[in-house]
Amino acid sequence: MALSLSVVLLLGIILIVLIRGKSIKAGPALVAILFGFFLASTGMAPSINRFLNSLADTINHITF
Question: Does the entry feature the keyword Transmembrane helix, yes or no (predicted)?
Answer without folding.
Answer: yes
